[in-house]
Amino acid sequence: MFVQCPAVSPFEWHPFSITSAPGDHYLSVHIRQLGDWTQELKRVFSEACEAPVAGKSGLLRADETTKKSLPKLLIDGPYGAPAQDYRKYDVLLLVGLGIGATPFISILKDLLNDIVKVEDSNTGTSRTADNCAGTNESCSANKISPKRRKSLKTTNAYFYWVTREQGSFDWFKGIMNEVADLDLQGVIEMHNYLTSVYEEGDARSALIAMVQALNHAKNGVDVVSGTKVRTHFARPNWKKVFSRTCSKHPNSKIGVFYCGAPVLAKELAKLCQEFSHKGSTKFEFHKEHF
């Protein structure tokens, strides 16, 4: 959707990927500071928002309880996106570079809402990810009912997020932890890759990996990302990723969705063709550049 903030510029409209799911009761976008308009937007909202809580992430927050008035925002949309047809595939392979992860956060949230929804035929009640996450009760009863499984074509989703900046993991910390907590059947598999750290095999990265493993075993939290999702170093071996997906899902129709710089798009498109021709698993490629 397009967003305009009259306090920044009464004429400029900027496009952003929607990161809330279709079933959410709110609309959200994630905006990265890259130019004059986004930097000014951050400044305008910083003045109206609450200061970050000590020890918490640096995200600024404001809602209807905030005393100060918030800057006005105008929105135009929603518009179509390359990733909007994800529900027609058996398996999803989602690849995001940096802020290119944004279109896939909406997809993961939508899948999560489906996965944890319990449809009790006796009582007609249902429980969603939101109200389950807001209680202390166990969510172990969350299973996809046979009725729900029939309507949900997608059986598995693999999300690969590649970023150079460790701080980027703060952007989607909430949804990553939510998936780790509530996806008890392992439908969604998440992989974080940090490319600015030492290459895999370097003694320093081996040391960090050791600390990672110890902390994850003890506290269930990754020391690099601050989430329950383990972080890998260097870049993914995409040929291995495709090969593993092929062997796991024979005779499946797999949707490969990519958002990021054009360079990797060529490699992923080529791998889709290569693996589709030599096996029973078929890959369809969709790309979006930012």
UniProtKB/TrEMBL annotation:
Keywords: FAD, Flavoprotein, Oxidoreductase. The keyword Oxidoreductase applies. Coiled coil: none annotated. Residues 1-85 form the FAD-binding FR-type domain. One of its GO terms (cellular component) is plasma membrane. GO terms for molecular function: NAD(P)H oxidase H2O2-forming activity. PANTHER family: NADPH OXIDASE (PTHR11972), SUPEROXIDE-GENERATING NADPH OXIDASE HEAVY CHAIN SUBUNIT A (PTHR11972:SF153). This is FAD-binding FR-type domain-containing protein. It comes from Aristolochia fimbriata.
